[in-house]
Design a protein that fits this description.
With about 180 residues, the protein is of the alpha/beta class. It has one domain: Flavodoxin domain (Rossmann fold). Helices cover about 40% and strands about 20% of the residues. The chain has six helices and eight strands, in the order E-H-E-H-H-E-H-E-H-E-E-E-E-H. Strands 1, 2, 3, 4, 5 and 6 form a six-stranded parallel β-sheet that branches. A two-stranded antiparallel ribbon has the order 7-8. Helix 4 links the parallel strand 3 and strand 4. It is globular. The structure holds flavin mononucleotide (FMN). Flavin mononucleotide binds next to helix 1.
Length: about 180
Amino acid sequence: MSSLTIVGISGSLRTGSYNTALLHYVQSIMPPDIEFKELLLNDLPLYNADMEAEGFPESVKAFREDIAAADGVLIASPEYNYSIPGVLKNAIDWASRAPSAPFSGKPVGVLSASNGIFGGVRGQAHLRYVLFAVNAHVMNRPEVYVMSAAQKFENNMLIDEKTKEFLAKYVAALIDWIKLIGRK
Ligand SMILES: Cc1cc2nc3c(=O)[nH]c(=O)nc-3n(C[C@H](O)[C@H](O)[C@H](O)COP(=O)(O)O)c2cc1C
């Protein structure tokens, strides 16, 4: 039986996404007793209150239920125009709605990767702000901003040893954070 369930979300739909590759690398180094499930954003419709009034679409229901059932959430997202991609904001908006608002009280870790020299720092700051709105408990530190991503990934795999070393520490900290918040 696994001790914790973590759901992972990539803010990029791109096949060769650095952020999805980053998420997959983190998944690969999770301890064996962690159940890690990736949630895809592809099937979520654009938020529309009229649609919500008729009942959450099946894809939205499943997304919300997976977050609600998880002990923690890990989001790896690119920065688009100094903020977060619309697909990610749309997903968080769907998940923010009553009755369950499943991000509320949930421990969350955030990562970003960009081919630029800032590693998506501005987008990640916006992501933290949006998660504040939905009352998630975002881990403040350690912070991970993977800069110059084109040099650190090859064939959708992380190849940079220093980043790998840092991510090992990040995963340990995230699990501690999830356990800490889960005890509250
Ligand atoms: C619409 C758009 C806006 C972008 N804006 C930024 C930006 O503000 N800062 C940045 O570092 N990179 C920006 N980028 C570049 C992305 O960081 C880069 O494409 C990255 O590889 C996307 O993440 P992914 O590899 O996970 O798909 C932008 C890309 C797109 C498509």
